[in-house]
Amino acid sequence: MIKSALIFGGAGGIGTACAKKLKELKYKVMIADLRQPSGELADYYIAADVTYEIDIKRALAAAQDQFGLIGAVINSQGIYVVGAAEKTALSDWEQMIAINLKSVFMVCKNVVPIMRRQKSGYIINLASMAGLRALPGEAAYCASKFGVVGLSEALFEELKDTGVRITAVCPSSVDTPLLHRALRLTEAEREKVLQPEDVAAIVADLICSPPRVLRRIVPIEIAHPLNKLERKREKK
Prior knowledge:
alpha/beta
């Protein structure tokens, strides 16, 4: 097993939790993000704007230089803007697609040839339950995450029998700054939604699973429905 990971968008939210979990498992971790991670979160950091393919290529080249072989790449970058379709600004739509979907495609496009040559490697695309089940008030977000799931499924079929694995991880609501800014959760609501470390534990289990184990989609639901959250989304 190659114990190295490159995390795009790893300076916050689920990406940070994944970095912490993999460090616990003795992985070498590189974070590619516009923000510099705090403390000892990663072994290496490279500034990267995922909307630019040149930055993605630089990050992958840096990971190869530092690791030799890339064990895993995690696409955890993303933004979350709620609003009914007719109220969604075109600029918000374009930014959401650029960061949530186009950047994931560009990472996959550039890392797949590397992992094919290695005959190993794991790509984790952090999608969402909103990529499996449409929600009112999230037209743009759902479109971006459905796209990530579709991309991941297509690559799953393309990469069979190559030694390269890919999974779309689809969590429900997660207690991250993105969710807070969009929905302003109460403390009681925050306790009911998934925590970043919950998702990170599942991501780590996938990466550490035997090469014979293939998972194309992994949904992660919350134990207690939050109907109030759904109403908040609808009002946007």
